[in-house]
Amino acid sequence: MRRLIELSRYAVALPAVSSLIGGILLMILGSIGIFQATIDTVLTRVPLKETIVSILTSVDAILLGTVLLVIGYGLYELFVDTNLEVPEWLEINTLDDLKAKLIGVVVAIIAVVFVGLLVDTKSASDVMSYGIGAGAVVLALAAFSFATRKK
Predict the structure, then answer these.
(1) Taking each helix axis from N to C terminus, what angle separates 13-44 and 48-79, rounded to the nearest 10 degrees?
(2) Looking at residue 18, what is its pLDDT?
(3) Mean pLDDT, the chain, as a whole number?
(4) Are 62 and 9 in contact (CB under 8 A)?
(5) Are the C-beta atoms of residues 66 and 119 closer than 8 Å to each other?
(6) CB proximity list for 16: less than 8 A, separation 6 or greater
(7) Whole-number pLDDT of residue 126
(8) By CB atoms within 10 Å of each CB, which of 68, 69, 84, 87 scores lowest?
């Protein structure tokens, strides 16, 4: 029974690999979106505002892909193989390491989404509402990170 429980940790390999595949797919789609926005802007003279929104949407997909890559690497490294060769900043030794990296990327995504909304929104009160909401989420993530950190 003990051996079965020990082997069950390898069940995490499937979601880890799935996260990596999803992350790579989103990064490819985001990159294609940026190239497409560039081509559209140069060839058909798409307005600057539309170009900015397209590029920010693509960057958002790339950042979400980064989240999935970090989750995939982290799960794999935590449960399956602790000797993955990844850059030092991506080494994950505990769930707290994974949590901290995810919070950082989520904050970056929130910033990109907010800038996209800022560019695309016509109403100042909408910008204020989005800004307050985004700020509240970032503050909540910071408080959560601070409250759960190990000393």
Answers:
(1) 160
(2) 96
(3) 87
(4) no
(5) no
(6) 71, 72, 73, 75, 76, 79, 80
(7) 80
(8) 87
The whole-number pLDDT of residue 151 equals 65
- The label of the residue with tokens 């910033």 reads 111
**Share of residues in the chain with pLDDT > 90 (%):** 29
What residues does each domain of the chain span?
2-148
Contact, 114 vs 130, CB < 8 A?
Answer: yes
Per residue in 132-146, pLDDT tens? 988 999 999 889 888
First to last CA, the chain: 35
Report CA-CA distances (Å) from 127 to 24, 30, 44, 76, 135: 32, 25, 29, 39, 12
Regions in the chain scoring below 50 on pLDDT: none
